[in-house]
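Quick one:
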Amino acid sequence: MHFHSAAHEGYGLSIGTFVMGFEAFLLTMYVTSCHALRHLAGGMLDRWTSRISRVRGVLFGKISIANRSHGFWFWTSLTFVFLGDIWVLLVAEGRVNDMVLLVI
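Output:
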């Protein structure tokens, strides 16, 4: 996001910025829909009777909704991490130019 070239000097956005940002979003969605996070939120409780355990039960229910799409987030994040790695490799080798979209 910080460019040092004759044509562009300063902070900005490029295609690589969007590729890496989208990867981070997909990985975040994959982790937050994870079974382990669901378990930490309240899956280990037998019942939700006290005040804090009720909050954990509600949190468990919300994460369980996201957990239904866990496989989708897994496959999309895996695919885009692979494509992002190829993008970074091609830019590093000079085969593709990382086009700058906006410089401030």
